[in-house]
Amino acid sequence: MPRKPNFDREDLIKRARDLFWRRGWAGTSLKDLEAELQMKPGSFYAAFGSKDALFELALKRYASDGADRLKTLRAEHGPLKTLQRFPAMVIGNEDAPAKACMLSKTLLELQARKHPLAEVANQYLLGMEAQFADLFEQAQSAGEISRAQSPGALARRYQSDLLGLRVSAERNGVDAGAIADEIAKGLEAL
Amino acid sequence: MPRKPNFDREDLIKRARDLFWRRGWAGTSLKDLEAELQMKPGSFYAAFGSKDALFELALKRYASDGADRLKTLRAEHGPLKTLQRFPAMVIGNEDAPAKACMLSKTLLELQARKHPLAEVANQYLLGMEAQFADLFEQAQSAGEISRAQSPGALARRYQSDLLGLRVSAERNGVDAGAIADEIAKGLEAL
DNA sequence: TATATACTTGAGTGATCACTCAAGAAACCC
DNA sequence: GGGTTTCTTGAGTGATCACTCAAGTATATA
Asked: How far apart are the first and last CA of chain B?
């Protein structure tokens, strides 16, 4: 009986993610979304419920894409090489809506208001860090790096370096590629 | 002949800075400012001209306070010790409106819209980096660190680490103090 | 004290915010 | 093709946005 929606939901979420990623939560209005997604308000609210609900879907998609990129890298390289290549990869994509991490942008924008989406972003950041910790542990098991520091501590620092790199990449007049190289080189010394 | 304004302009700018720092540009409404500064719209606009104009004053105040803190540290310690203590200092102030850097928050929030304030923030970040470069050069001259890397490259990386640290400090469940210690320790190895 | 000169007040501006809903259009089953 | 169900449309909701301005008030000089 029902009529099918004439849009690809996953594609809409991706486009919304890119818009939110670039412009942020407050910087993206419903009008912007309607224009980008080619949806009238009624369809939009029938499909997603609210701006916040779509933002959360966008965050989820962002986080899982990031995790997938890391796993793809891991499939081709060892754990250390994966960790070394990842920084240059995240700032190297010219098609990306922004260099900075969407999770950190969301956290910085919404944390002070205690907006629920800030905590969602925080959780995904913790998830990424856990992935990094796994890779560091694997690198230690493979003998690629020493066991002088715990995988958790290494991941914490790596995540921090990555966040700094990605903020730096957003700046004008800063050679972020050089910073990415230094991060990669720093891992060799472990 | 004129009547004096019954407020302390510098104090108002400081309070506005704290509000903008915590909540961001879009997250701070005129109503918020009126409440915090105890000013009616007419007085506000007579005194500052616009929300953006006050935000710019707040950024300037933020940047010069940061520069002052660095100089104060430098007056008591050598260049290397100054660079080593600064990270723990910026995240250690419990009274600060936020752990993250106001300049980077502004950049991330407004860069995509090409808002003029994003470029202002970018310039102040470059100014901070120049200060760091000076300190690295002094540390090299004093023989505290090697000349293997240029002061500019060292400052670029240090700034990036600092930005990452301050984003990390905004997160829940992350021991930012430990990261600050690692940054300080990393400088010894230069 | 008279007057000039600000500063302060607060209701009000049009624009935009996220969001709603009734009505019409399209696709499915029978 | 009839009937049901969902999707789409787009004008419209009240709230809030940054900002204005005329009227009132306080303080300075003369």
From this structure: 63
